[in-house]
Amino acid sequence: MELGLNLGYWGMGNDADNLELAREADRLGYSVVWAAEAYGSDAVTVLTWIAAQTENIDVGSAVMQIPGRTPANTAMTAATLDTLSNGRFRLGLGVSGPQVSEGWHGVRFAKPLARTREYVSIVNKALARERLTFDGEFFTLPLPDGPGKALTLTVHPVREHIPTYLAAIGPKNLELAGELFDGWLAIFYSPEFAAELLESIAAGRAKVGKTLEGFDVVPTVPVVIGDDLEACAAPLRAYAALYVGGMGSRDRNFYNQLATRMGYGEAAEEVQNRYLGKDVPGAMAAVPFEFIDRTSLIGPRERIRERLHAYADAGVTTLTVATYAGSLEERLATVRTMVELMDEAGLA
User: Fold this and answer.
1) Range(s) of the chain covered by CATH 3.20.20.30
2) Least confident interval from 72-76, 96-100, 177-181, 239-243
3) Which residues are 322's β-sheet partners?
4) Fewer Cβ atoms within 10 A, N terminus or C terminus of the chain?
C-alpha cells in the first residue's frame, strides 16, 4: 500500500502551506499528490504549479470535471501536463453533481454514466494519437455537414498510456470504473463496508476480462492524530456534514445515499435536514462519531497504525492522506508520521 496526499481546493488561504506539504510528500517518497476543483480553483493549474516545484511525486486530478471540458480538451491538457511533468500525471475524472454541472457549467446532468463512457473513450482515443472520430449520443466528431475534419493530437505524451481514474460512489458508476479506468478515487471509504463496493468494481473488471490485480483503489482518508478521539473527530464534522448534508439536492446527494447504504440512513437524513435548513452546527453535531471513525484515521499513533492494516486488507492500494486540522507544522508532522506508521506496520 502506497501513500498519497490530497490537497483539496486551492485558493482557500492555505496555498503556501499546501505547496510545502506537497514538497515534503515528494521528499518522503509519497507516490502522488492530488488537487481538486469545484467552482473555484481549477485542478490543472495547481498541478502544473506543484509539478514544477517537485521532482518525483506524481500529480493527479481528483478530479477534473467532465462537464467543464470537452473530452478533446481534456486529452490535450493531460498530454501537456504529462509532458511538462516528465510522465508524472494521473488523470482523475468525475461528473461532479447536478448543481455544479447545470448551475456552473451549463451542462445537463442527465445520463451521467453514458456520458462518462463516451467521454473517456474519446479521451483515450485522442491520447493514443488516433484520428479522432466518434459517433455517440452526446459527442459527435467531427460534426456532420460542416467544415470540421478528423484530427490527431500533435503532442506526443511521455507515456503510451496516462493512468485514468474515476471518482465513483454508486454501484453502476463503480462498475464503470472497473470496466474502463485504471483506478478508483473513493471518498468516505470504510474498510468494514469495502467488500460491497469492490464487488461492483470487480464486476466491471470482469466485463473486460480483468481482475482487481493492478487496479488502483485510492480513498481519500482524513487523518487527525491525538489522544482525545472526540477532539480528533471534531474538525472532520464540518467536512462530513457538508458532503452528507449539503453536497447536492435533497433527492440527489450521492454522499448521503452512500452513508445510507453504509447503515447510517437515519443520521444521514437528520444531517441533510439540518444542513439544508441552514443549521450547519446542528448538522455537524448529527454526524455519528462512528461514521467519522470508520472513514478516517483518528486517535493516537498506535491506534492509527493498527487501523492501517484494515485499509490494506480491504483492498486499498494507495491511501491518500488529507490533513484537515492544525497549523502547517502540525500538518507536516502528520505527513511525516504516516510514513513512520506505514513502516512500523510493515505496509511500506
Assistant:
1) 2-224+300-344
2) 96-100
3) 222
4) C
